[in-house]
């Protein structure tokens, strides 16, 4: 197994401003905006300029490239735990411990909407209620027509996005026996995954003639599953857990997923994983997987298919630890990690920590 | 969440589960005496019998004081928005089939003054569940009247009930009052859309999480509670019994009916008794029959008489109360119209009762649009000539659809949906609304809000209630059932389900619900357009159709209970307006009210 690290992680920006724990970071998929949320009930947005791409110019002034553009004082009564951008980049969803989900957008009639997220004010266009207790996670489907949320009330809800910020509840899934920590959508199909304190991952589909239903339960983690990330090609799913492992699950059949790889290296709960395309794409490359958690450690793995699946058998993956960054937020826990999904930023990711700080990083090869 | 956990017993994924934390605070009634601040406190010890004792922590010699065991009563559960750590056990111990048996065993003989008249009322959905279950395991299909007859014989001869009724006549009254209430609201006395109130799960949920919906919810009592009024007030009057001298048991398809029966509104302070003393589910009735070795699939004598008979009793109950001479032995045998079929839905036909009033069938057309599955349908009554929409209603079952109705009603009515925290997001923009107002008139009327929504918490409605019988076990061996399934054109997957998981996983329940639905309508797969039982009955020497007979009897009961002054005209109907005092009594007997339950579910401080 290759473990020799060939890359290092460089701090690009350190963004302070939250008055309390920063829980989550989300890159706008279409516009140069990075958003973060916090126990302080606000969402902060930062605009970044494209000269970030000037590989060897102005890098020293990295911090200057991220400019705070606006703060939404959401009005949520409790912590904003997770934020999610719609694929169009026009709408932001906030999942709060007050059990509600806020849907935010800029009123295009009210004035110029600039790329930076400044300009017209971000307004709460809709409020999705239904969860009984803390809402933990929210996610838009790839097509942007569905929104999923999950909560400590053990339920996963699927909402259909209608015009004019109207939402219809399509399903309330009560499959988990405990707190549901995370929901994630498949990158191309309408497959929903959820991760729970009950140590399992559940996968759901819509039966057009009936309701949403759970078609698979992935067991293997020995403790809480905190976070989920599909591979960019949709053939794999990564899950991170309190059992200090990241597991990689492969879609071996239409409705069947099996664990093909276990990544280790963390010493505390792994709170967050993100699976990006990575940069040095080569034959069989699945992209880069970033993980972080209670130990403050960031690990970047490059995953490659060593021998592809055949006849319903699992693939064999090759894993290579590209880079390792301890104490990313000093002694603070790191709650969230996210690759920038925009073209040309495949080497850039952001983290949010208990220190209330959001940091932007870049993977650079030695 | 607010519904009892029993609902989750089926495989369907649209039920509501109980939430995790019971927030009922433990009230310490025996507080320790004043003590020095900072002094050693006391400890709680448990002795071998399981009792709790408070003792000084330094192991003082004084005898520990016995502590009261913390108890959760049904009323606590009603008042608690967090729902119920072990809702089922609480419910089942307080209102269970063993409770019924305990009562019957301890009920003194009729000659004793302390004797209570045991009365049992069974819902048609429960009868349908029993009928479907019996039919599936025997070669002779049975209908609801067979089942009612067998249940009656069992309850009277084996258990010792003195009167057994079905609740369809009570439902008939509920539908009359319900229609009257809808007319009131149409006239501006109250808000529209009106939302059905017969589902206690929905009521519980609305009171706890959607207080803004309460003004829309029909205040008419549910059939169960109308039956409670009939039994304890009207029949009690006829029998010369006070409400606390009657023990009223209902058999319901739903656990949450237990919660409904124990609402404060249905408690008679004067006599310290409830209109319905104990609610058992269909499953618990089956359990009772099991324990007493009663085989419901066996026919009992007199059944065919019941089958061919008119639902209208030959003898109408006497108009004047004639209390017995004191020994209570010769109660009047009151017969109510039985198994009145109300066309519409198997959950009580509430929407249909409103639709049938909307306009003359000859000039109006009804359009039904399926929004998503059979559990969410829109019914629009429009004038055929002008196309004008006279009524827009919806049938909406299951938790998911209920969410959407709450959102839609809130939006259309312009009320803020939701609980505390929601209000703090000051300005949720109403763009959608603003845009729609600008649309042209035709589009507006097509999208006009509902006038009425029949809301039920269970997917499939009451025939699929949480208290209904489980479907018979589907054997994979060649014996018995597979033949039945195959006959229905249903292919069974011979391969292991694990390798091909899919929507088949919850197929069994839905298929079973369909069978119960069929049994409910007497073997017809869909509700008949008109009541099938159109045999004439007799009242005051005149021949009447069953529903007319039921209308007349209902009006008479109204007059007897409310004693209007002046006396109601013989031609008066249920909707006639009486004097103020009598109308006040009508409200007391046939309406109820709802109140928001303040929820401050904090839970444990959750950090993650």
From TrEMBL, chain A:
<feature type="repeat" description="WD">
    <location>
        <begin position="15"/>
        <end position="50"/>
    </location>
</feature>
<dbReference type="GO" id="GO:0097361">
    <property type="term" value="C:cytosolic [4Fe-4S] assembly targeting complex"/>
</dbReference>
<feature type="repeat" description="WD">
    <location>
        <begin position="334"/>
        <end position="366"/>
    </location>
</feature>
<comment type="function">
    <text>Essential component of the cytosolic iron-sulfur (Fe/S) protein assembly machinery. Required for the maturation of extramitochondrial Fe/S proteins.</text>
</comment>
<feature type="repeat" description="WD">
    <location>
        <begin position="218"/>
        <end position="250"/>
    </location>
</feature>
<comment type="similarity">
    <text>Belongs to the WD repeat CIA1 family.</text>
</comment>
<dbReference type="InterPro" id="IPR019775">
    <property type="entry name" value="WD40_repeat_CS"/>
</dbReference>
<feature type="repeat" description="WD">
    <location>
        <begin position="128"/>
        <end position="161"/>
    </location>
</feature>
<feature type="repeat" description="WD">
    <location>
        <begin position="73"/>
        <end position="104"/>
    </location>
</feature>
<keyword id="KW-0677">Repeat</keyword>
<dbReference type="Pfam" id="PF00400">
    <property type="entry name" value="WD40"/>
</dbReference>
<dbReference type="InterPro" id="IPR001680">
    <property type="entry name" value="WD40_rpt"/>
</dbReference>
<dbReference type="InterPro" id="IPR036322">
    <property type="entry name" value="WD40_repeat_dom_sf"/>
</dbReference>
<keyword id="KW-0853">WD repeat</keyword>
<dbReference type="InterPro" id="IPR028608">
    <property type="entry name" value="CIAO1/Cia1"/>
</dbReference>
<dbReference type="InterPro" id="IPR020472">
    <property type="entry name" value="WD40_PAC1"/>
</dbReference>
<dbReference type="GO" id="GO:0016226">
    <property type="term" value="P:iron-sulfur cluster assembly"/>
</dbReference>
<protein>
    <recommendedName>
        <fullName>Probable cytosolic iron-sulfur protein assembly protein 1</fullName>
    </recommendedName>
</protein>
<feature type="repeat" description="WD">
    <location>
        <begin position="173"/>
        <end position="204"/>
    </location>
</feature>
<dbReference type="InterPro" id="IPR015943">
    <property type="entry name" value="WD40/YVTN_repeat-like_dom_sf"/>
</dbReference>
From TrEMBL, chain B:
<feature type="region of interest" description="Disordered">
    <location>
        <begin position="305"/>
        <end position="328"/>
    </location>
</feature>
<dbReference type="GO" id="GO:0046872">
    <property type="term" value="F:metal ion binding"/>
</dbReference>
<comment type="function">
    <text>Component of the cytosolic Fe/S protein assembly machinery. Required for maturation of extramitochondrial Fe/S proteins. May play a role in the transfer of pre-assembled Fe/S clusters to target apoproteins.</text>
</comment>
<feature type="compositionally biased region" description="Pro residues">
    <location>
        <begin position="525"/>
        <end position="534"/>
    </location>
</feature>
<comment type="similarity">
    <text>Belongs to the NARF family.</text>
</comment>
<dbReference type="GO" id="GO:0051539">
    <property type="term" value="F:4 iron, 4 sulfur cluster binding"/>
</dbReference>
<protein>
    <recommendedName>
        <fullName>Cytosolic Fe-S cluster assembly factor NAR1</fullName>
    </recommendedName>
</protein>
<keyword id="KW-0004">4Fe-4S</keyword>
<feature type="compositionally biased region" description="Pro residues">
    <location>
        <begin position="314"/>
        <end position="324"/>
    </location>
</feature>
<keyword id="KW-0479">Metal-binding</keyword>
<feature type="region of interest" description="Disordered">
    <location>
        <begin position="521"/>
        <end position="543"/>
    </location>
</feature>
<keyword id="KW-0408">Iron</keyword>
<dbReference type="Pfam" id="PF02906">
    <property type="entry name" value="Fe_hyd_lg_C"/>
</dbReference>
<dbReference type="InterPro" id="IPR009016">
    <property type="entry name" value="Fe_hydrogenase"/>
</dbReference>
<dbReference type="InterPro" id="IPR050340">
    <property type="entry name" value="Cytosolic_Fe-S_CAF"/>
</dbReference>
<keyword id="KW-0411">Iron-sulfur</keyword>
<dbReference type="InterPro" id="IPR004108">
    <property type="entry name" value="Fe_hydrogenase_lsu_C"/>
</dbReference>
<feature type="domain" description="Iron hydrogenase large subunit C-terminal">
    <location>
        <begin position="144"/>
        <end position="466"/>
    </location>
</feature>
